[in-house]
Every structure is written in structure tokens, then in C-alpha cells.
Amino acid sequence: MKQLFTRRRPTAIVILLALAVFFPVSQAAAQTMQEPAPAGSVPVDPKDPYESWNRKVFTFNDTIDRWVLKPVAQAYRTFTPQLIDRGITNFFNNLTELRNFTNSVLQLKGESAVVAVGRFTYNTTFGLGGLIDVATAFDLPERPEDFGQTLGYWGTKSGPYLMLPFLGPSTPRHFGGFLTDGFALPSAWDAVESPDVYFARAVQIVDKRADLIPAESFISGDSYTFVRNAFLQRREFMINDGKVINDPFASGDDENLMLDDF
């Protein structure tokens, strides 16, 4: 463990410095966007001040998905037996329990930390290395926690909505948490050696995209707006442990639907 943190220390320092600079800048930008717009100009939404740019990135991501990722995911759903597909999803979900545990501890959520340890122990020991989710059957449902949620727990503001190339919907807080979870905090992925880790990540991405295909039927109206609303609602739901305090984007019943995997 000491060797793990020694190897990650330079990366952790870089990320923490980036967070220290990026969050105040993004919040200042969002605050600036809240100022009254000049007469005759189109008002800027304070939660999505970069909408014009975000829509261009959304179109780019959608094109990549339509021509590359989605066809692969559809083939995966067609030729992979449901039992194997479920096992692959369970396996990758089990790897996230170390992340859930670490961030539960950082958020002072003792019960969630115990649940994460219990889930990983049960699923790894009795679930064939995580292929079977026996923990849920033992009344230990997953409690997802990430560093973006940890930042929110300690009062860090979300910042403006961002659509990132390849990565999809995000915010400065969410993206900072993503980087920290991936490079600064200990992860079960550290046990996977190259080049196997790249193959495993590719399978994980395809499996996740395949699981999202049925959710596409819920999308209605403007796809960009729907995805944005669903993502922001889902993040608020997770950060507040299931309590949605406000819904700044809700404008209809369809847009109140949340896609669990966003």
C-alpha cells in the first residue's frame, strides 16, 4: 500500500493543484454569466453558460457513438448471452467498491463504508470473483460514492455544465472527481497489468454502452437538453443521497426522468 501511494503521489499533487485553480475559475465564470445580459442579446443560462460550445461537442460525441460505439454495443447485446452480460456488469461494478469505500470514509459515512467492504467481500468470495451480485441478495445494495460526491459533500460548488469530448456530460466538480478517482486514490484497477487493463477497460465501456441502449427510448424532445437535465438531476440525487433539493432544468414530465447510468 505504501508503494501504491508513493507511485501516485506526483499525480495526486498535480490534480490537487488543478482543482485548486480550476474550481475558483469555473465558479467565477458561472457567476459572471449570471450578470444581466446587454439589451437585445440572448440571455445566457447560468447553469449552462457554454451551451453553444457544449452542443458542438455533443454533436461530435453523438457522431462517434452512432458510427463506432453503438454498433459495437448492439453487436455485444445480440451475441452475448444475458447471463454472461450480467456477470460482466457485476464484475466491473464490484471493482468500484474500493472507490465507494474510500469516498464513504472521506465523507464520514461509516455505514456506507461498511456496506462497501461487505459487498466486495461477499461478491468476491461467494460471487465467483464478483460475477454474481450475492451482496444485494443479502440486503446490501450498492451505495455509489465518487470523489465528485465527496467534493460536493464538503461544499464545493458544481460549476457550469460541460460536455466533454468522448467523456460526455460533466461539470468541473464531476470532472475533478473523475480525475482524482482514476489517478490519485487507490483503485482495484491497480492490480491489472498492461496491456490487459486496456482490454478490460474497452470491455467495460462496451458493456456500459450496451446497458444504456434500452434507456434511449426515454429520450424525447431535444436530445442535448434531455441528457443535460438527466445528468444534472442524477448528480444532485447522488450527492444528496437520494434527496433532490431543487430541479433548475425541469420543464416537463419527460425531463424529470433520470437515467441511472449517467
UniProtKB/TrEMBL annotation:
Pfam families: MlaA
Signal peptide: 1-28
Keywords, in A-Z order: Signal
GO cellular component: membrane
Gene Ontology terms: biological process: intermembrane phospholipid transfer
Similarity field: Belongs to the MlaA family.
Protein name as it appears in the record: ABC transporter
Organism name: Marinobacter guineae
Taxonomic path: Bacteria, Pseudomonadati, Pseudomonadota, Gammaproteobacteria, Pseudomonadales
